[in-house]
Amino acid sequence: METSLHHQLKSHYAASPDQIEVAVGAYRIDVVRGEELIEIQCASLSAIRRKTLDLLQRHDVRIVKPSIHRTRICRRDVTGGPTLSRRLSPRRGQPHELFEELIYLRDVFPHPRLTLEIPIVDVDQHRWVRKGKTRRRRDPGYVVEDTELSQVHESIELRDAADLWRLLPGGAGPDPDRGPERDRQLGGDEFNTQDLAASIGCPRWIAQRIAYVMRHAGAIESTSRDKLGVRYRAA
After folding, report:
1. DSSP per-residue codes, 95-136
2. Digit-coded pLDDT (tens) for 216-233
């Protein structure tokens, strides 16, 4: 079932209603804007990997994958009922979390006909609480009924491998125009995933996945290995 967030983003990217849900060959495309096909994916990117590979053979494709910055939780007692309370979730999403999804496009991105766009958004999440049922393990005790777009802050556009640095805190990788601070944070000319984790402020296993995606795309390259693991540098 389409969420309000998905529907609202289609309207955000379309210049007119006739650009929405257009048949292109065997596929229905969320938005067709000129010569560009726009696919908005709020769920996992794994679901559109094969479709993207097929479309790129003949078309320019833009994949829009929102990054949720803040979530306002709107609680209901029953589905479709009145909103009883609203509160901001303490969790703040970060663009680097998108590397978890980019793993599924590791053999697709970068591509000369592909653009990835990451809008940074705030959303309202409508939940209703389950009652009278025994909680199971990993059961949050509620059902997400819908997610609505509240605000679009900015968008991060990725076209080539070097753009992946823009998903990390600080915006870009080693760049002589920005000074040596980024290089120092990542351990000088070379760094390992422990340095990367410290720079981002995340667990090392997340930094390992980020390094995997960046190396596969060609944003970084491995240089050596020591007792702390593989060392990398910007490609």
Report:
1. GGGGHHHHGGGTTT-S-TTEEEEEEEEEEEEEEEE--SSPPP
2. 999 999 999 988 889 999
